[in-house]
UniProtKB/TrEMBL annotation:
This is Methyltransferase domain-containing protein. Keywords: Methyltransferase, S-adenosyl-L-methionine, Transferase, tRNA processing. Pfam families: GCD14 (PF08704). The lineage of its organism: Archaea, Methanobacteriati, Methanobacteriota, Stenosarchaea group, Halobacteria. It comes from Halomarina rubra. Residues 69-218 form the tRNA (adenine(58)-N(1))-methyltransferase catalytic subunit TRM61 C-terminal domain. SUPFAM superfamilies: S-adenosyl-L-methionine-dependent methyltransferases. InterPro entries: rRNA_Ade_Mease_Trfase_CS (IPR020596), SAM-dependent_MTases_sf (IPR029063), TRM61_C (IPR049470), tRNA_MeTrfase_Gcd14 (IPR014816). PANTHER family: TRNA (ADENINE(58)-N(1))-METHYLTRANSFERASE, TRNA (ADENINE(58)-N(1))-METHYLTRANSFERASE, MITOCHONDRIAL. It comes from the Archaea. One of its GO terms (molecular function) is methyltransferase activity. GO terms for biological process: methylation; tRNA processing.
């Protein structure tokens, strides 16, 4: 997939596709490279870019509110997820987290209880070009833990974005390699406490964060934090096996 940019417009397309807009028809060559400029039949220019993580966040199909990049960044930075790591995830949703982790080279097994959401997530993994790294499964991880343990499956990181996160967190020690991390993304304080209490039963280094990010407005009159934008998204609980 590539990104086609014209001033404040962006379109995500495959090489070889045709883009039709009010700016004209654009035939995209199979061999086009990032940095080139293509013109529609009306002479309107489009810059070609390779897709990056933020572009995926903006252009992947949505099935709900995705995890924000600032939270994903904290997850990657705090756990040190790297190429070759095995990640077990529950609550795929749109698949934003799985796509980011796949792009850093981690091998992700992610569970989604809604078959339609899972199908959209699989399509998004194709768009993100990480389908080889991300296995989207339909099911409830809480009901699959015993099977994974019986098969001797162990993971470097376990990420949870589900209502039953406390139940899975209580079994995290059975799923993680020594030194592996549990991460739970929780929208409410009550659920956060439940995850913390479950994690404390068998894991150590339990920490909880709320990520607050403020955009700065820089103008002629001065510089100040923006009054617009998303404030609270969720709480992140980290624990280590």
């Amino acid at each position: 997939m590539i990104l086609l940019v014209h001033e404040d417009r962006e379109y995500c397309r495959e090489r070889g596709d045709t883009l039709e807009t009010d700016l004209g028809v654009l035939e995209i060559p199979e061999d086009v490279n990032a940095g080139e400029t293509l013109e529609t039949h009306l002479g309107e220019p489009f810059e070609v870019r390779e897709m990056r993580g933020p572009d995926l966040f903006n252009h992947l199909d949505r099935t709900g509110a995705p995890m924000m990049p600032r939270d994903i960044g904290l997850i990657i930075g705090h756990t040190g997820i790297a190429a070759g790591d095995r990640v077990l995830d529950a609550g795929t949703g749109t698949g934003i987290l799985s796509a980011y982790l796949g792009r850093v080279g981690a091998n992700v097994t992610t569970y989604e209880i809604d078959p339609e959401f899972a199908e959209v997530a699989r399509s998004n993994m194709e768009t993100a070009e990480v389908a080889d790294h991300v296995d989207v499964r339909v099911g409830d991880l809480a009901e699959t833990v015993d099977d994974l343990v019986a098969d001797g499956e162990r993971f470097d990181v376990l990420t949870l974005d589900t209502e039953d996160a406390p139940e899975v967190a209580a079994r995290a020690d059975d799923l993680l390699v020594p030194g592996g991390y549990l991460v739970a993304y929780v929208p409410f304080v009550e659920g956060t406490r439940a995850v913390v209490e479950a994690a404390r039963e068998s894991l150590g280094d339990v920490e909880t964060f709320e990520t607050i990010q403020r955009r700065m407005d820089v103008g002629d009159r001065g510089t100040r934090p923006s009054t617009a934008g998303v404030g609270h998204t969720g709480y992140l609980v980290f624990a280590r096996a």
